Amino acid sequence: MKKAFLALMAIACCHFLHAQPTRPNQPATDPANTQAPYLKFPTIPPFHLLKLDSATYLTKDDIKKNRKTIIMYFSPDCEHCKHEIESFLSNFNKFKDIEIVMATYQPFSEMKEFNEHYRIFEHPNIKIGRDEKFFLPPYYNIHNLPYLALYDKKGNLITTFEGTQKVDTLMNAFKEKKK
């Protein structure tokens, strides 16, 4: 009886110790408690995207300094992504002073077709590349496309959006940051 009682107490102690919350300086083990990297480091991330020439890479150093920036994660076959880029292009005068970085993980050939179909190459402030290492989705904790991350002229995060957004919503987010 004494051995059974001691065994039961040992199990209860182990359960009690395991159920303790993490200390403030101890990393959380539950993914729901971890903060996405973009929130820990709210500046333009160190991305590495394969450019359309399939030989060179687009990095954050290629973004013009002192300009607002949008990083758009998309899929070439996503209807919402197509609507978003159509909205950008039909309102291009509002985006002409904003650097737009479009990234996808989809096959290179699909990205290239998307670029040609929408004639993105005609807009020097829109850069497109393939996220070969699948860096951005976990960095931003992306669940829906298109995913838009807006940065101010200093490269600091303003806000993020998942799903199609109206042009006015994006422009207002940039304006609110000015205040």
From TrEMBL:
Any GO molecular function: antioxidant activity
Pfam families according to UniProt: AhpC-TSA (PF00578)
Top-level taxonomic group: Bacteria
Signal peptide region: 1-19
Annotated ranges, domain Thioredoxin: 30-179
TM region positions: none
InterPro entries: AhpC/TSA, Thioredoxin-like_sf, Thioredoxin_domain
Name this polypeptide is given: Thioredoxin domain-containing protein
Organism: Puia dinghuensis
